[in-house]
Amino acid sequence: MAAFHRLHHPHADLRRLFHRLTVASSLSILCFSLAYLLTGCCESQLADGSEAKTPARDSAAFGSAWPYDRNATGGAPEGTSGAGEGALGARAGPEANGSGKEWTATRRLPQALIIGVKKGGTRALLEFLRLHPDIRALGSEPHFFDRHYARGLDWYRSMMPKALDGQIVMEKTPRYFVTVETPQRVHAMSRDVKLIVVVRDPVTRAISDYTQIISKTPDIPAFESLAFKNRTTGQIDSLWSPLWIGLYAQHLERWLAWFPRSQIHLVSGERLISDPAGELGRVQDFLGLQRIITDKHFYFNKTKGFPCLKKPEGSSKPHCLGKTKGRTHASIDPAVMRRLRDFYRPHNQRFYRMTGQDFGWQ
Ligand SMILES: Nc1ncnc2c1ncn2[C@@H]1O[C@H](COP(=O)(O)OS(=O)(=O)O)[C@@H](OP(=O)(O)O)[C@H]1O
User: Fold this and answer.
1) pLDDT by residue (tens digit) across 201-224?
2) Residue 309, CB-side half-sphere exposure with 13 Å CA sphere
3) Domain Sulfotransferase, which positions (predicted)?
4) What is the tens place of the pLDDT at every residue in 147-166?
5) Is pLDDT of 331 > 70?
6) What is the mean pLDDT of residues 58-84?
7) Binding residue positions for 3'-phosphoadenylyl sulfate
8) Which CATH number is 52-355 given?
9) Which residues of 159-171 are buried (b: 16+ CB within 10 A; e: fewer)?
10) Of 217, 201, 207, nearest to 332 (Cα)?
11) Residue of 118, 119, 172, 194 marked catalytic
């Protein structure tokens, strides 16, 4: 009778089936949401964990931390160019930017790069730019496009500081400018990336470079014997790295094969010292940012002989770049200087024509 009853009440069966289906789907939605939440938690815990594990050697490299470090990765590494390996493993450090919106920030590939030149003033530019609330910059030099390209873009992205929508992510590696394969690689990452090059009189730049080399390896030969192939004939060794880097036109040509001139901004290393606010104003324009960094952020430190950052509100002292920036240069025979100026003159003229800018180097 009961079976008969079930057989003859198909609606009751359907209702039961529907009820079971509803319970089952609610349960699977619940399980799915739980799994999703748990995965999310683990991911953020992992990210936080690796942030916290910034290697001690990186912290040490960040010897002279700057004020305004809201945007920093723990401070500026000094003299990482060339060596550069100090950048490895360096993470973005504190994410706090005072906005209280860190949880919405993400790691993104850079939209702007300071690609050179070594000893041009790249550290000063990066540290000054970090004052801008719309810039998030990696403090160390990642050397991705020249040394660590095989690690892939995910690795590169993971090195970047977290940024909010609308903030510009950037890094500086001065060696990019002179590495042959870099323009193509940067283009493969983004054809819209904005490129900044700080250029400085190539003779002064070469001596600055040599001064750094000799500070690390005091036994190297004198500048003069490395700069010339033949001192008697005055034949310059343009393949010697400190001189070769200064052949700006030659290096820029490679970048112009991949990027339009409008996407490359040149900063005068000399004006970055004599008028930092003016140079910074032009860089902010180029990046499409409001001019927030102005002359009120700088003062000229007579002892150091360079512009430094003023005391930020509520912070301790004014800050200058570290000891490796603004060093006393090795003294070079004036006749050698003249010969070097003659050597660079045509290259500089070509560079001025290519860029439409006269940097006034003698
Ligand atoms: N504000 C300020 N303070 C100190 N130094 C300044 C500043 N602005 C520009 N410079 C010049 O920057 C030169 C070092 O350039 P880089 O930072 O590009 O060097 S590196 O490639 O990262 O090693 C460094 O070169 P040297 O003077 O030869 O040490 C400085 O001349």
Assistant:
1) 999 999 999 999 999 999 999 999
2) 26
3) 110-347
4) 999 999 999 999 999 999 99
5) yes
6) 34
7) 119-123, 200, 208, 325-329
8) 3.40.50.300
9) bbbbbeeebbbbb
10) 207
11) 119
> 158 CA to middle of ligand 1, Å?
28
pTM: 0.77
| Candidate from 20-34, 42-56, 215-229, 292-306 with smallest mean pLDDT | 42-56
Ligand 1 neighbours, Cβ below 6 Å, are: 79, 81, 118-124, 174, 208, 272-273, 306-307, 321, 325-327
Give the residue extent of every domain in the chain. Answer: 52-355
Reported as type and span, the H/E element at residue 75 is none
Burial of 328 (0-12, 13-18, 19+ CB in 10 A): exposed
Q: How far apart are CA 242 and CA 252, in angstroms?
A: 17
Who has greater pLDDT, 242 or 16? Answer: 242
Q: What does the chain come to in residues?
A: 362
Separation of 39 CA from ligand 1 center, angstroms? 45
Distance CA(81)–CA(267), nearest Å, equals 18
- Cβ 210 vs Cβ 223: under 8 Å: yes
Residue closest via CA to ligand 1's atom 7 equals 124
ipTM score for this prediction: 0.99
> Is 160 within 8 Å of 71 (Cβ atoms)?
no
10 Å Cβ neighbour count for 358?
Answer: 11
